[in-house]
Amino acid sequence: MKPLKIAIQKSGRLNEKSVELLKNCGLNFENYKSSLISPVSNFPLEILFLRDDDIPEYVQDGIADLGIVGENVIQETEVEVTYLQKLGFGKCSLKIAVQNNSSIESLAELDGKSIATTYPVILDKFLKSNNIQADIRTISGSVEISPGLGLSDAICDLVSTGGTLKSNGLKPFADVMSSEAVLIGRKGSENEDLVQELIQRVQSVLRAKETKYVVLNVSRHNLDTVLQLLPGVKSPSVVPLAEEDWVAVHTVIPERDFWDRISQLKQAGAQGIVVMPIEKIIL
Ligand code: ATP
Ligand code: MG
């Protein structure tokens, strides 16, 4: 069988998390920095390490079956690919920013102004949909220094913490798009069965990340109250303990509810609460 190919970023902000995700899917491969292709020893898959800008086209053209890339890059390259799964990392937003002392405070005031960006396609669509005519100056990097150099009145750039903008004396005032890393594919892939298997592995790792395995002890007297606080994957397991009238409850709960639930459980009489990470959840 012809191996699948998945394209991930060779180096940069998405590389480490993409490699970690694939390793957590149980795939064994060498993360060579020097090689462009790495075979997976225990699944019919090859990993292609590429510049992120090239990933959407490789997937569209069928050179790779799957890819991991930021939504911003997909929108900018305007390719036809299928979004398979949001991956929860590489979160950022594309924002318009101006210098702290700029008089521009609203979108309408960008009319007739110049904006430097590495995302001309997305910015152009955004400006058109807001009926703003501005001069888009496409540059290939270090966008944040352009207002200071007098190259543009504003910038449109990716922001995660906002630290880079701040340290360059810039303030954001409009959101163009928000983005995160996504798994992409193509309609009509020859290896549809393998693609589906890999998607399922990815989803089981993501589900596990969002949840915790919780074990706690409770007296039978308080069991009902505690069970009401614990919606499990199916339903919690209740196991008798050596001490009569006490049971252990095992369940899986979403990480986001975690601290809330723990204090409610304690109030309801739960003791010896143990919380464990989960590796995979296969439904
Ligand atoms: P390459 O060499 O592969 O072309 P790059 O320099 O274009 O890399 P990176 O800076 O590594 O790209 O960013 C990769 C992706 O990480 C971005 O396209 C975006 O989706 C995401 N990202 C998350 N936070 C940020 C941020 N603060 N700035 C830029 N990109 C971010
Ligand atoms: Mg790039």
From TrEMBL:
Keywords: Amino-acid biosynthesis, ATP-binding, Cytoplasm, Glycosyltransferase, Histidine biosynthesis, Magnesium, Metal-binding, Nucleotide-binding, Transferase. GO terms for molecular function: ATP binding; ATP phosphoribosyltransferase activity; magnesium ion binding. It catalyses: 1-(5-phospho-beta-D-ribosyl)-ATP + diphosphate = 5-phospho-alpha-D-ribose 1-diphosphate + ATP. Pfam families: HisG, HisG_C. Its EC number is 2.4.2.17. Pathway: Amino-acid biosynthesis; L-histidine biosynthesis; L-histidine from 5-phospho-alpha-D-ribose 1-diphosphate: step 1/9. GO terms for biological process: L-histidine biosynthetic process. Its cofactor is Mg(2+). It is found in: Cytoplasm. Belongs to the ATP phosphoribosyltransferase family. Long subfamily. Catalyzes the condensation of ATP and 5-phosphoribose 1-diphosphate to form N'-(5'-phosphoribosyl)-ATP (PR-ATP). Has a crucial role in the pathway because the rate of histidine biosynthesis seems to be controlled primarily by regulation of HisG enzymatic activity. This is ATP phosphoribosyltransferase.
